[in-house]
């Protein structure tokens, strides 16, 4: 009896796994100035529209790629490194070839809370982290309230 019950469960599970597939009778791609992909024999599709976009649900879904461009970031360059990372006591923010005017740093924890902030006044700025708890932090470098770079810091 136990063997028959296990056999029925095994066969039922296999049928459920095959239920996630579809047999398309025909399909293809067309590309000119745009792109179209189609499948014949598709039974059900649903599209939900909202203020922030749309979602298409079905057997075949489209792929859309978007490039987000911030025009301010094209003119801002910052050559910077931090070391040592991971750290125990302090990190050094090392900058090369950059104007230090109005350059600041902020350290946030993983919850987004501001832990420490300060001014970057020289090319090698030491930031004390001895009193920080063990964890992951993010150091943001800003100039005139515009974010230039973000570093992930691991505190041991």
UniProtKB/TrEMBL annotation:
Keywords for the protein's UniProt record, in alphabetical order: Signal
InterPro entries: Secre_tail
Domain Secretion system C-terminal sorting: 82-149
Taxonomy, superkingdom: Bacteria
Pfam families according to UniProt: Por_Secre_tail (PF18962)
Signal sequence, renumbered to the chain: 1-26
NCBIfam families given in the database record: Por_Secre_tail (TIGR04183)
Protein name as catalogued: Secretion system C-terminal sorting domain-containing protein
Source organism per UniProt: Polaribacter glomeratus
